[in-house]
Structures are given as C-alpha cells and as structure tokens.
C-alpha cells in the first residue's frame, strides 16, 4: 500500500499534473522530501496529514506560488511554466484557499475574470460569460452582485467559477468546508462530483477524514514532509488513515507515547455535582446587534470545573456570545459576571485581567504575534510571573515554561524561538491554545478551537481544556459548530437566532438531537453520541 512515487495512472484516466521528487526546505525544516503524486482527469484525490506535515507547502508549489528546491512539476507531460507566470499556471491549476481571494467591492463577474482580461474590457461580455459558466455548472449567483453581499458558500462558488473561467483542468480545494454549514458542505460535495464528472481533477485537502472517504477516489497521506501512503479510499478505513498520519498503529481511543490521551482528561472522574460548584460565569440577558449573529437576551452560567458547550447555526450568535464574554466585542444590553463581579464590556485587556482566557476564532488576527517566537507567544501573559523579582526573563526560562504545554498539544515547530508566523495553520492554533492555558484563567472562552487542527491533535486539545477545568476548577465556555467538539462538554446550550433554544444536560449527547435543535426543532434520540467518529457521517463532520 505504501508508495513514495506517483501512483500508476489507471487505464483511461489522463494524468494532468505530475509531481516527482519534490523537496522543500525552510531553514532547518524539511517541509517536503521527495514527494511524488499525480492528479488525474475526472478524479478527486484527498490529501491528509497532521499539522505541519507539509500539505500547504505542497499546495503552494502546485499553485505556482513557491519553487521547490528539487523535483519537478509537469502539466500534461510538459514541464510546468516558471513560478511567477501565474496566468499560464492558472490555465492548469486553480486553488480555492481557506482565506477567500475575492475582492469584496467588485462584482461576481469582475471577480470571476479578475486578472484574466485583455486591456479592452466589455463588462457586458464578461457578465455574459460569467452567466454562461454559472449556467453550465448549475451555479445560481447573479453576475452583477457585489461580492461583499455574498455568503461564504457563494464566495467559494465564485472562486470555483473563476478557476473554470480560466480553463483550469485541476482545482485544489484547501479545507473547503471549514467555514461552511452542514447543508452548504453537502452542496459543495455535489459540486466536487460535478467537477470530476466534467473531467476536472480535484485535490481535496481536509482534516475531516469522513469527507475524504465520501468524495475522494484516492487518498495521499503526508507525514513529516514525506508521502507515506497513496491508496484507493475504498481499500482503507479511518484507523488505517490515522495510523498513516501519526506513524504507528492508532486505533480509536489510543494515543501516542508521551501524549496524554483525550480520554485521560476527557471528563476525569466526572465531577459529581458540578451544579453545586460555585458559579464562575454568569451571563444575564445579553443582547447584541452584531452583524455576524445577533443576541436577543441570552442568559447562562458556567460552574467551576464545568465545560459548557454553546452551539448553533452560523448566524445563531454562538461566536458573538463567545466574543462578548471574552471582551473581544461590545454588547447592547445585559451583563457578564465573573465570580459575581461585573466584567467591563468590550475590552479584551480588562476581561483578561479579570481572569478570562480567550481562544479566538480568527487566530491570525487575534491569536498570536507572528514575528515573535513560539515560547514568547505562549508565555506572553505570564511574563511578569516568570521574570519574578529580578525583572529579567531569559529565553531559556520562557522555553522551559512553554515546553510542557507545547508538548501536550503536540505542537510541531523548529524550536521555541521559531516565529509563530512560520508555523503551519494548525500549529498556530496550538500556540493560541497553549498561551491561554499558560496563564491559568478562571474562565476559558474557546471559539471553534479545533478548526484546522488535525484529527489526532483535536483529542489532545479538547482533552487539555477538559483537564484544566477538572484540575484547576476553571470554567470553560466552548463555542463551536463542530459537533464532535461537544463530546467533551458537561452541558450544551443550543442557540437559535440569538436565543437559548434548549439545553442538553446529560452527556453523551445525541448528535441527531443536537442537529435538530440547532435547526430549531426538538426530536427523540435515535443515533449514537457525538464524538464517536464511526457514527458521525460526513454531513455532521463537515459542520
Ligand atoms: N515560510 C516558512 N518558514 C519557515 N517554516 C515554514 C514556512 N512555511 C512552512 N514552514 C514549515 O514547514 C512545515 C510544513 O508546514 P505546512 O504549512 O506545509 O503544513 P500543513 O500540513 O499545511 O499543516 P496544517 O495542517 O497545520 O495547515 C512546518 O513545520 C512549518 O512550520
């Protein structure tokens, strides 16, 4: 099953893109070593690997953004254009990145043909061509709409349409469901099938293995920069994939040597009566008019040692609630009390001072300082304690203080001094989490904390949050639309249109009931609990 070179093209399937022996170094980090793979017409190849395995580096090379140190990229049997000749590169490959490359102030048609027009432009013509593409592929978006008015799903469609307009034969989708709701993710799967049926090759990068099983014919696994497995998805099960990713036999519930298992910390000893524990957080009648999801009078509480999940659809106000409690945004009415004391509204510094740790949704904007080293980021909020009376804080002391936290989250870096901005996306998220854990807050607000984190690290991350709650008596407010995150919670509050719709207070929580509740319906349990990977079909996992 293991192979390091490009897999043999099956009969009748044309190899459109072929990568052989690709190496890429960043300083001392060997991000890719001798990687080879093929993208074939009409096939969807999944690309998976742990955080830092080299997926984004390979995507950047395939997208013509960076040059490999060694190895070749061939399009249709010919050497690829030189790096930088973006126009010719886009005739073969177009990438839909996690962060939208759409210009919000331009219309759909302008974005579809952005950088793809001769100097004399007939907008009428471009609109007509955009309409033709939308029609051909069954996309339903008006070519004249300004992109700022579109949803995340529609923006993705515009990016796919842009790829098709350039005649790209291969489309790379990098974590495409990360910001999509369940139904939108399902529609995306249909579009991927449509693309492959039309002869397009798709490279599908995801941490959601269920998605890979659902839509990819083949899957390639990167581990520490090496391609360790390429195989038909039908010949593997989830455990095989995880084993290839982590490098060893990994069965559900097992963990790597030296890493604490999620189960160890999942709900250690199940604190007998959390309701009787003192109230850490009390949210009272919170109202907000936030454009990202309003709140219409939300009240809830979190007790010491308790992990309370908050979930709902994208616009239900889940992130708004988390951001307001963390002091990252203001609110119109209501109050937030920590240990009975009112927390000033809308000030992150004041909230942190009061004891509220924050794992933000947008780690790039709020989570870490890119040019500072890993250890400096992790210990940023405890620098005063570490330097003690002398006021001198040596890098070695920072590194020693950060080490247990980064090890616990299995953070991959070139060392404690590596700038956080150079880390892979998932490892940047781990820096954010480690920093929050470091200052031992009495309440942790985490918003979609496992987004972009690999499947094995998710367990570690969630386990760490639960462990902190159990061992220090901190409260955790876990705001997430990923149902599998909620398995670690003691209670789950479901928001619908900015109001508390219902509460689940007895784990394990039934995923079907949770889904129904997020849609504003109440049902009867029929299926397995959340967090059981075997029982979470792709549409739920795609949340
Ligand atoms: N510009 C850079 N400078 C230094 N190191 C880098 C740079 N870009 C990537 N790396 C390193 O290369 C390795 C591979 O990173 P890459 O982003 O490709 O991983 P990934 O598989 O995409 O991870 P994730 O799942 O977290 O997004 C990591 O160790 C990362 O720190």
Automatic annotation (TrEMBL):
Residue span of region Disordered: 522-543
Family matches, as PROSITE patterns: ABC_TRANSPORTER_1 (PS00211), ABC_TRANSPORTER_2 (PS50893)
Keywords for this protein: ATP-binding, Nucleotide-binding, Repeat, Transport
Family annotation (InterPro entries): AAA+_ATPase (IPR003593), ABC_carbohydrate_import_ATPase (IPR050107), ABC_transporter-like_ATP-bd (IPR003439), ABC_transporter-like_CS (IPR017871), P-loop_NTPase (IPR027417)
A GO molecular function held by the record: ATP binding
Residues in ABC transporter domain copies: 17-249, 274-522
A Pfam family recorded for this sequence: ABC_tran
Protein name in UniProt: Sugar ABC transporter ATP-binding protein
Organism: Trebonia kvetii
Taxonomic classification: Bacteria, Bacillati, Actinomycetota, Actinomycetes, Streptosporangiales
């Amino acid at each position: 099953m293991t192979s390091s070179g490009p897999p043999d093209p099956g009969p009748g399937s044309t190899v459109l893109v072929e990568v052989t022996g690709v190496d890429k170094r960043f300083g001392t980090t060997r991000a890719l070593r001798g990687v080879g793979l093929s993208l074939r017409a009409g096939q969807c190849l999944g690309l998976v690997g742990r955080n830092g395995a080299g997926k984004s580096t390979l995507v950047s090379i395939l997208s013509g953004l960076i040059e490999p140190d060694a190895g070749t990229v061939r399009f249709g049997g010919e050497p690829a254009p030189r790096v930088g000749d973006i126009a010719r590169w886009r005739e073969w490959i177009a990438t839909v990145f996690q962060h939208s490359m759409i210009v919000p102030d331009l219309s759909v048609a302008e974005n579809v043909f952005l950088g793809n027009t001769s100097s004399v432009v007939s907008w009428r013509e471009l609109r007509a061509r955009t309409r033709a593409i939308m029609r051909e592929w069954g996309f339903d978006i008006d070519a004249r709409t300004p992109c700022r008015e579109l949803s995340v799903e529609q923006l993705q469609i515009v990016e796919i349409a842009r790829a098709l307009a350039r005649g790209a034969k291969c489309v790379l989708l990098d974590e495409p469901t990360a910001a999509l709701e369940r139904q939108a993710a399902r529609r995306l799967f249909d579009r991927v099938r449509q693309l492959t049926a039309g002869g397009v090759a798709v490279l599908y990068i995801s941490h959601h293995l269920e998605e890979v099983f659902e839509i990819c014919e083949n899957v390639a696994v990167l581990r520490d920069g090496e391609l360790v497995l390429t195989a038909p998805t039908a010949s593997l099960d989830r455990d095989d994939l995880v084993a290839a990713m982590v490098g060893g036999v990994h069965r559900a519930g097992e963990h790597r040597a030296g890493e604490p298992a999620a189960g160890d910390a999942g709900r250690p000893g199940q604190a007998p009566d959390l309701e009787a524990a003192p109230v850490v957080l009390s949210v009272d009648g919170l109202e907000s008019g936030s454009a990202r999801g309003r709140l219409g009078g939300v009240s809830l509480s979190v007790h010491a040692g308790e992990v309370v999940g908050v979930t709902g659809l994208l616009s239900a106000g889940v992130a708004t609630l988390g951001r307001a409690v963390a002091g990252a945004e203001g609110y119109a009415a209501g109050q937030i009390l920590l240990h009975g004391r009112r927390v000033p509204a809308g000030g992150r510094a004041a909230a942190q001072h009061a004891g509220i740790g924050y794992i933000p949704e947008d780690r790039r904007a709020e989570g870490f300082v890119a040019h500072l080293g890993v250890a400096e980021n992790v210990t940023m909020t405890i620098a005063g304690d570490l330097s003690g009376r002398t006021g001198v804080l040596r890098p070695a002391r920072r590194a020693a203080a950060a080490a247990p936290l980064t090890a616990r989250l299995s953070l991959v870096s070139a060392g404690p001094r590596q700038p956080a901005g150079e880390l892979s996306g998932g490892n940047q998220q781990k820096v954010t989490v480690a920093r929050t854990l470091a200052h031992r807050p009495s309440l942790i607000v985490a918003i979609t904390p496992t987004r972009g984190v690999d499947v094995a690290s998710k367990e570690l991350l969630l386990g760490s949050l639960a462990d902190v709650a159990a061992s220090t008596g901190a409260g955790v407010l876990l705001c997430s639309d990923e149902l599998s995150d909620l398995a670690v919670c003691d209670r789950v509050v479901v928001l619908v249109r900015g109001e508390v719709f219902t509460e689940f207070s007895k784990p394990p929580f039934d995923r079907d009931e949770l889904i129904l509740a997020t849609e504003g319906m109440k049902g009867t349990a029929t299926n397995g609990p959340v967090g059981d990977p075997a029982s979470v079909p792709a549409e739920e996992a795609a949340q």
